[in-house]
């Protein structure tokens, strides 16, 4: 998911689509502050597993949210999993 959060606007995470999910909140551009005072700027991210923080835009910000189910079966032999190409 992605969104542009205007300066001064507050938002929260969507309702989890499944159980056992983790959210990766990535600030593509801008400045965001969480409830607990943690500040994120362009290029920063935060992994959220069981919390439900609010996010406040200190400036207009473009954010990306990745959602993954932590208990799902995964494939370790994919392109980005550390494979070494045989020569």
Describe this structure as you would to a colleague.
By secondary structure, the protein is mainly β. It is 0% helix and 51% strand. It has no helices and 6 strands. Strands 1, 2, 3, 4, 5 and 6 form a 6-stranded antiparallel beta sheet that branches. The protein is globular. The termini are far apart.
The radius of gyration over CA amounts to: 16 Å
Number of strands: 6
The helix-strand sequence is EEEEEE
Shape: globular
The termini sit apart by 38 Å
Structural class: mainly beta
User: In this structure, how is the largest beta sheet organized?
Assistant: 6 strands, antiparallel
Compile the SSE list and pairings:
Layout: E1 2-5, E2 10-12, E3 21-34, E4 39-41, E5 45-48, E6 54-69
Write a brief structural summary:
The chain is mainly beta.
List keywords for this structure.
6 strands, mainly beta, single chain
């Amino acid at each position: 998911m992605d969104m542009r959060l205007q300066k001064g606007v507050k938002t929260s995470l969507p309702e989890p689509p499944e159980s056992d999910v983790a959210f990766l909140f990535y600030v593509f551009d801008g400045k965001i502050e969480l409830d607990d005072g943690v500040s994120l700027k362009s290029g920063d991210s935060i992994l959220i597993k069981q919390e439900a923080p609010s996010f406040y835009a200190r400036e207009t910000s473009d954010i990306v949210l990745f959602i993954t189910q932590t208990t799902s079966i995964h494939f370790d032999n994919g392109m980005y999993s550390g494979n070494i190409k045989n020569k």
